Please model this.
Amino acid sequence: MRPTDDELKRELSRGPLRKHGFDERLRRRIEERLDEVPSPRPFRLRRLAGGGLALCAMIAAAVLLVRLHPMQTEEARPAADAIVGQMSADTGAPGEPEEKSRRAVLLLGLRQDAADGGESSYRTLLLAGGPKPSDWLAAEGGGIIMPHGTDFWGLDVREYEPVGVRLAGAWNASRGGSVLPPSPIPDGGSMPAVAERVLFAGNRYIAIDRRLDGEWKHYMMDIAVLADHRNLVAILEDVEPSVPLAVKDGRVGVAEAGGTGTSGVGEWTFARRAGYWMAYIREPDAGGASAHAIRRQTGFPFDDSLVAHNELALNWNDIRDAQPAAVDAVTSPIRNMAAILTDRNIVVYSMRGGKLDREMLELELKSGETVVMAEWATHPDYVDAWIDRVSELFDRGGARYAG
Model:
């Protein structure tokens, strides 16, 4: 039964509808909602998360497409796989370092000992590599060129005639210097034979062997001492300042005046072993005789003040698969470059995924050459600077002697 017009007018004149309409309770609820301040939802998803959501959405769409069109399953699957592959390549793995686009430079210092016990010779190789073929290059120069602070320092051993004294010396090559300290031997003086050779160079410390009275002893020297006028009397009396070893917080470092830690080991040195620098200390034998001292490996890692990078990012099975005659190897801190040494040559490889990739450079080694320095630059601000500045120092030639 439909209401008449008069009945409708009477109902409307009474106000809002009583059921399912705009009553007083609904009005209060609306006003309370209007008074509330909405809290913003934090947007925490980064671009990578957005890419992941987009990937999930694309996968779901592909699966839905296959289910909606069962007759096109074989045709739809390659398309879905292609979409997933493209999305995966675009997003990348979370936190994956972009090291493959970076370059690396290695300064490799080498020492060649004469077969007859005569004077040792030194040279430095500059090896550079990167993602492009043009990034790979090699250069060499006489003596040791080592980075120290913001400069490059030269290091070599001078032989003083006619008395047979060979002493190590250093100079700041970046400041225009190419002069070893003058001779500490007075004119017409008679001195016993003394010879030094460099075993390690890195940061500010130089490990040397010194032969006096037919006996070799180890010394860790600050580069500032080698750059100064050497005191031959102090050398002969074995009182020239050297740097004692200290073990602190489980790491091998140098002893500092007033510092804490296990110190007082004055005769110690570095040596290469299976791709790593190792610290060795020299101890007297059981009878206290220094002539039969024992070299003992410390077994501790190094403080960064001594060796900034002492990691080999390859195992020796992979190294010898590539070079069966390998005796030493170094890898860059960003794991994009490796240099493998045999008795005859140095082979430089690019690296990919922690493995050797391609052979890029090969250089001949002189008979008996061993590594005394391995310094890396991988930061984009330093790679070109090292190449330019060290190449310029190579062009200048070897050191000149003063006095």
